Amino acid sequence: MKKKKVVSSLAAILLCTSMASTSLASSSPNGNLTNDRANLPISGFTDHAELTKALQKIAQTSQGRVALDVAGRSHNGLEIYKARVGTGDRVVMIQSEIHGNEKTGTEALLNILQYLGSSNSPEAQNIREEITLVVLPMMNPDASELNRRANDMTWSEVVEKFPSLAEATPSWNYYTRTLQDVDYSERPGFDVNRDFNPDLNYSAQPADFPGSSDQPGWYITPESQTVRDVYKSLREEFGNVDTFIDLHHQGQYYVEGTDDIVTMSLSGQFVPDPGSPEGSDYAEYAENYRYDYSRQLNVAAYNALQSIGNSPFTNITLYQQELDLPGTALGSFALNGSGTVLFEVRGQTWTLGQKKKGQLVKAVETGLNSIITGVANDSIDDLNPEDYEDIPETAYRPGL
After folding, report:
1. I need a labelling partner for 178 at 20 to 30 A (CA). Which of 90, 131, 187, 270 fits?
2. At what angle do helices 104-118 and 122-130 cross, to 10 degrees?
3. Where do runs of H (alpha helix) occur along 151-290?
4. Beta pairing, strands 339-346 & 243-250
5. What are φ and ψ of residue 186, in 5° steps?
6. Is 120 helix (H, G, I), strand (E, B) or coil?
């Protein structure tokens, strides 16, 4: 097993907030990412109104296969939709757009829902029989409508809902500065993907603020509360959420030892193993933790993309490892017994707009389909988890 690079706290924060973006020249066939601070078009992506129509059409034409519900509402009252298809015992839960400028996952999920809702192929029938797929295709719609990372909520509005926090320091993930070309001083918001807690019944306590990246979150945003409630309801119904996948974007990086620009990074590690000395803070979750299964899920996605052949779709790397991020949805749900997978495709809308949309959506869809199919036909269980360690690492400069 190769040893992954240790990450400093600062590096982990920078990487996991996906703020980094470089404009280094590259001969990669994947093309170079630059950002001239122009107003990059994003109209090719699905907005909330279009999502509503698309999901309603998928449900209406699915002959009852796809059930559509409003799982909750954003701070500004927009619907957070939940689509469900299949009747199997193994649950696969997928969410997209926890950051509103990371949009390709939503497109991929609509394609998958359309297929599973309408296809009579043996593969689609087997998937519907063997798994229950639950999808939150746009779980932070306020951020999506504003085309930015954070939701649209002030600290004072949090205090209105949690009066005990009146004297607490605002949480560390509360944005009031300029980030990714967005000035949050007029309309602050929270990075929702730091608002999760492995204690699914946790209630906010003043002593836990402002917190930090290596500490759990608080469930103070309605968006994270909605995801938690969906997750809890599935656990109550099925006993466990077998697989949880979170779809994201990142900056421009390189396949280790090459000048090939990364198309997508994968990961199944977000907190230290609770059975290890490094993970002793999470020891109470040790019996739940399924790291080998998480690695198998990631290997399935990696293998599917490599099978496409010599193309940008083979430029897949392992996202930074040895992280300690219990406030993420992935970290919290991994501690609760889910196999976890992070997808990080290249470029947010502030750096890439809708350029490469088709390629990136296909990469996400290919990886998701391989996992969904593999869970349904049990082929995931035959994969060697140690193959995860052979996925190339991410580099921050080209290896010329």
Report:
1. 270
2. 100
3. 155-161, 222-238
4. parallel
5. -85, -35
6. coil
pLDDT tens per residue across span 250-275 = 999 999 999 999 999 999 999 999 99
CA-CA distances (angstroms) from residue 237 to 87, 232, 350, 352?
12, 9, 40, 41
Q: 179: phi > 0 → left, psi -120 to 50 → alpha, else beta; which?
A: beta
Average pLDDT over residues 370-389: 98
Query: Is 121 exposed, middle or buried (CB count within 10 Å of its CB: 0-12, 13-18, 19+)?
Result: exposed
CB < 8 Å & 24+ apart, contacts of 172-181: 172/210, 172/211, 172/212, 172/213, 173/211, 173/217, 173/327, 175/149, 175/150, 179/19, 179/149, 179/150, 180/19, 180/101, 180/148, 180/149, 180/348, 180/350, 181/37, 181/350
pTM of whole model > 0.85?
A: yes
Q: Is 178 exposed, middle or buried (0-12, 13-18, 19+ CB in 10 A)?
A: exposed
Location of structure tokens 């290890």: 276
Question: Which carries the bigger pLDDT value, residue 390 or residue 13?
Answer: 390
